[in-house]
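Hi F.,

I've been meaning to write this up properly since the lab meeting, where we talked about keeping a consistent format for the predictions we share between groups. The idea is simple: the sequence comes first, exactly as it goes in, then the structure tokens exactly as they come out, then a line or two of notes. No screenshots and no reformatting. I'm using this chain as the first example so we have something concrete to point to.
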Amino acid sequence: MFIPIFLLSLLSTLTAGQPLRPLRGYLINCGSKNDIVQDGIKYTKDDSYTVTGTLKTLNRTDILPVLTTLRYFPYGKNGKHCYTFPVTNGAKFLIRTTYFYGGFDGGTEPPIFDQIIDGTTWSTVNTTEDYRNGLSSYYEIIVTANDKTVSVCFACNEHTKSGSNPFINSLEVLDLDSSLYNSTDFGKYGLVTVSRSIFAFDGDIVRFPDDPFNRYWQPFVDGNPAVEAHTNVASSEFWNRPPAKVFLSGATTSRGKNLTIQWPPFSLPTNRYYVALYFQDSRSTSPYSWRVFTVLINSETFYQDLNVTTKGVTVYGTEWPLSGDTQITLTPRSDMPVGPTINAGEIYQILPLAGTTLGRDVMALQMLRQSIRNPPDDWNGDPCLPKEHPWLGIGCSEGKEIRVTSLNLKGLSLIGTLPKEIAGLTALKEIRLSMNKLTGPIPDLSPLKSLEILHLDENKFEGPFPDALGTLPNLRELLLNKNRLSGGPPQNLIERKGMIIRT
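Output, unedited:
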């Protein structure tokens, strides 16, 4: 997937004395021990949102302050490492990850790895070309929260070289108004940013405070003539709330001619895309300040006879098929005294979401994690998804409903207790917790009717032998030896054909 880039300099210039509207969400300076302010925006240190990884500082003065620190995560083929943020269920967010390698590990080439949003692999992070050209890289996705937390995770993939460590410099989780991009079914899809551009504009990137959501609007210049607006646009009247500044310039052409733009300026993979285009008649408001033209994308009609006035208008396609190079053509109606014009555009790749692990299973595992003093480092994010990166020791079902089917944390020297909530993992077939340092009583596991294997040997469990185990109809292996339990297994377990018991 294409990686937007920006030069290692200030992204925008703020006017002296300009009042700042506060950004809503989280702006994280990864790997830093201190909060910083950059371009009038406060970035906070990250230690409240992740429990793993190592901090690193780049001794550079020629890059943005937020790029001088990073957090990197240990190489591993299966584990994932996450930032987790408390949010409002159903709220909409733009999530941006920013990367500048800087040779933090003594190497010359950045690592390649996956980034994950909740249970979905969002994209592969490959910043090699950007870094070679002295640039940093950023990725964006728009999603809605399906729970009370949002997790952004990083994991090695088949392209990650042995010993390479995934890393991140900056992470933003920015609140978006519910009206933005609301034609998308965010219960099923996310929107991955491909391009967001202002046409015939060669200034700085437009962002906060011009864009209250800190979206980045990149300048885009080609051979088409530029035109400046003579009337301001009220951007609040647009669903997607484009900043008014994007309407100050536009690409145009002469009367009677088609306006053609090759945008975005790179080839796209075959997929479905959300496309939004923004237009305004650049002339002063009058009874004659309007123009009509047809919008085509790759010769297919996107909108017929669009009437553009000084108030501005947007047209969008929610699932537009694109592949390879993309050409936008504006064809004027034959009676128009002026040529067509276009101001800005956004393209997002539509990303099907992988879903999530069943909520009550997630809650049960969270309680188990809280009851253990030294849980596995990768026990963050979704326990089962993406299926290439489940939590250590967790096995899961496939299909429409994702359930936890096995728990294998044998020999990890875990210290803690076994909470009663583990009985909520009703799809469990195996529990293997041998050779740890778990204490306290064994909770009532009678709801685990699918359980076949229970290995709790070589721990420090105490109390009476759990008679409820005799009610588990599928149990065939029970190891409870080398604990401090009183009593013994019920007779019906002892007499069960093929049963293996060690107490």
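Notes:
The CA atoms of residues 103 and 303 lie 48 Å apart.
The first strand starts at residue 5 and ends at 6.

If this format works for you, I'll send the rest the same way.

G.
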